[in-house]
Each structure stands twice: as structure tokens, then as C-alpha cells.
Amino acid sequence: MHRRLFPRALAVLALVATAATAGASTATAEAPTPAQTRLHATIDAILADSRLAGAQAGVVVVDTTTGETLYDRNGDRRLVPASNTKLLTSTAAMELLGPGHRFSTDVAGDGVRRAGLLSGNLYLRGGGDPTMLAEDYDRLAAQVAAAGVRVVTGNLVADDTRYDRTRLGPDWTWDDESYYYAAQVSALTVAPDTDYDAGTVIVHAAPGAQAGARPKVTMTPANDWLRIDNRAQTVATGETTISFEREHGGNTIVVTGQIAVGQAEESDWMTVWEPTGYAADVFRSALRRHGVRVLGRTVLGQATPDDATPVARHDSMPLADLMVPFLKLSNNGHAEVLTKELGRVLSGSGTWAAGLTAISEYVGDSGMDTGTLRQRDGSGLSRRNMIPPAQFVGLLSAVRAEPWFDTWYAALPVAGNPERFVGGTLRSRMAGTAAANNVHAKTGSLTGASSLSGYATDADGHVLAFSVVLNNYLTSSVKGLEDQIAIALASYTAKATTTARVAVPTAPESPRVPEGLECSWVKPAVC
């Protein structure tokens, strides 16, 4: 696949500053103007906040119109970027796969077909689609029935061989395993709703009819792949304390706690163990509903024969549309699927290693110095990812020349916009400020690591590319400091003629989100 190479000089132009010394900001190559001096002082004052005492902070701001570096503190320091890692994955996917790329899921049969009898196996082949819903499997089953198949004498074979069988990302922490933002990755999977959290199920607990009864526990989608161990109680009155947890190595979800009579149901998104089997179970149930009987068993992980006869097919939305739930909601599963898809398409190997190589080559061609960074996964869940803020800004500056940039830019979260699929993880941040409906940026959150990188249009109409990466703080949140910097950038004007008194912007309170989680990772969403 042809791709345009960006000269290394672009990175030099975009980052016109020398490396910052630890803990100190640097001016531009020439003497700073009064406006720049005031911006330096403003950001310095924000970073002097006591919440960052003993922490590490990297901040870089570049005017993409002039190529001038307006601020640089520790721009070359390698820091844990959390979900800002998705900037690399998403741009590489848009360039190397293309905005029109789709994932296909198909059904094929081998053996002899006579009347409604298929004397052979039925193959469900996954193409990596992270947006497959139960209703999509139902439509596939309807196509099988419409093709005249009524009885399959062989097995239902779930073919997930497009990608390797490594289900969890390198370095992911064990205690995230049952939570939906760390779902297992498979080429054949199911999402429970249109947030498209593939490889998860929504578990619901509603109070029983009377105190002492077990709550009623159901799942979306309904399936027989997971088992419920209901240890919870319905009580007459009291606080709801329902909790769900999937046991390691299996598909038993343990429900504990209590819920009072008459209270609203509690729900949570849980990962499944082995998404391939989950998808096969949902599809097999759909076949039964449409009058198709499979006499054999369900077999996982076998490849579809080359001479199998196509029976049904479903194509995903194009990648341009997938960028919206991916980036707006910081969907980790989408990042990892795209990483493996890049490996599969470019080198024939659906692995993390092959995909990360493809990403590295693209961002290197776009001006990032890949010798200064390390990327271990597609989403940023790994704490072994290390990327300097200056490299993020180099990438953000370079991709503005890409033909797909406007689509990708629109998919970034938009500060202060309350619409969930516009504001995304920034929808409850910076509302009512100069940054609202202005700043387009990717958020990032892990315990002790927070980031915000993207674009702010300043008061002069210049687009500023910026990256803020904060590490090793002990407080519960530093999001407000990121917001103050973004607001300062949106308010910046180069026309100021005096240094004036430094005014640190105030940022509205953000919703309380558990430490280490993105806003949209808290289900049901709190922001």
C-alpha cells in the first residue's frame, strides 16, 4: 500500500526548540514576545500547583501555522501517556488501512448440500469486527436460513484465525481483567450495545419481589456462554451494594451485595473469557431461532477451508465511522483490534508485534523520532508505554496535512460539548470557557498518569498543537490542571503588547471518576 512520507525536517520545523532542562520551561529560538512571556508564566504557575509536588510534568505547545514552539517543559522526557497512545494507533490506522476499511464476518459451509441438508460443517469466520452485535449475528442466521440450509450434520466451527490467540495485551494488570476496558481481543467477538465494547456482556440485577428473595439477574445479550452465581439478597430497605465480578479463567459471574425492593436495577459491563466461544454461542442461538439445526458440536479456533462455499456475510461500518466511538469513548478494544488488523493487512500476521511495527513505521515517516519512545500496545493500558510530549506534538502537527485529517479531527473528544458522541471524554470538562467547543483532544488516565493532547484554536485563529502528560502524582486527579492549560491556550493571543499580570484560568469542576479510569470507562457513564 502506497503512503506518503513526511520529511524529518517537518518534525524539526514543528518543534523548533532545544530539549528542555528538567523542571524548567524554555522560550522560543528567539527572544520571547510579551505575549509568549505571559503564556510561559501562566503555564508555569499552573504546573507549580501542589498536586504536582514530586511529580513529573511534560508540556509542549506549537503554533501549527508558524511552526513556532510557544512552550516546552520537559518535552523530550519519556512519560507514561495512558490513552494518548491511541493518537499513534488511530492515525496509523487511518493512513494504512484507509477511512473506507471495513471488517467482514462471514458464514460458509463445506461438504455436500442437498435440499435443506448440509452434510458437513458450518463455519463462522471472524474478520475482527469489534462492532458485531447480537442482532448482526441474527441477520447472519437469517441469511443462512434464506439460503435454504435447514440441517447441518457437522459442527459449527468458530474461525478466529485472522488474529493470533494472545487475548490480553502485554503488561496489562491482572486486576483489570474482568472489567470491560480490558476485554480479551479476538477476531470473532460480540459487543452488547452501540458503545461497541466487544468481548463484554452487560449484567443486570433487579430486586426480587420481596425481601429475602434473590435479585433477578439477566444479561445483554442473553447467552449460555456465561454462568451467574447469584449470592446477592433483596432487602426491605437500605443502600444498594450490588457488585459483579467474573472469576479468573472462566465465565462465572459472581453477584454479591444487596438491593432494596422497588429500587432500580443495577448494571455493569463485564468481560468474557474467550470471546470466540461467546460469539459462537450467540450465533448458534440465532440459527435455532431461524429454524437451522446444527447436529454437531461447537468447535473453536479452526480455519475455514479455502474451498468452503459462502452462505452469508456482514460488513462493518467503515473505519471513518468507527473512529467516533473509538476516540470519543476511548475504547481500548478498538485500539487493540486495529493494531492486530494493521499487522494482518500489512504483513499477514495478526499479532501485536506486527501491528506495532506498522504503527512505528507510519509515525516515524510522519516525523516522530521512534528512537525516543516505546509503544507496547494500541490503547495505552500498558504502563511500559513511554512517549515524550514533544513527539505527540510532532505527530499532531504532521497529520494536519493528511487527506483524512478532518474526519479524524472531528472524532476527537470536544471540550464542553454535552453530546456524548461529540464531547466524548471531554463533554463535562471546560464547559463555559474559551476551550468549550474549541479544544479537540485525546484524554488519558491511569492511576498516577494523566494526559491531554490535541488542538486548541487560539484567540487569533491559529491552531495550536499541544501535549500535556503528567506522571507520578499522588492526588486523586490532576485533570483540572490540564484543563487550565487548555483554557489558557484557547485564550492566547500573540497581539498582547505588555506582559500584564499573570491570570491563571479557572476550570469548572469535572465529575468524580475513580482514579485511573477514563470518564467513559465508568459504566453507566457519569460524565
UniProtKB/TrEMBL annotation:
GO terms for molecular function: serine-type D-Ala-D-Ala carboxypeptidase activity. Keywords: Carboxypeptidase, Hydrolase, Protease, Signal. The keyword Cell wall biogenesis/degradation does not apply. It holds the Pfam family Peptidase_S13. Residues 1-24 form the signal peptide. The keyword Signal applies. InterPro entries: Beta-lactam/transpept-like, Peptidase_S13. Its EC number is 3.4.16.4. Belongs to the peptidase S13 family. NCBIfam families: PBP4. This is D-alanyl-D-alanine carboxypeptidase/D-alanyl-D-alanine-endopeptidase. It comes from Micromonospora halotolerans. The lineage of its organism: Bacteria, Bacillati, Actinomycetota, Actinomycetes, Micromonosporales.
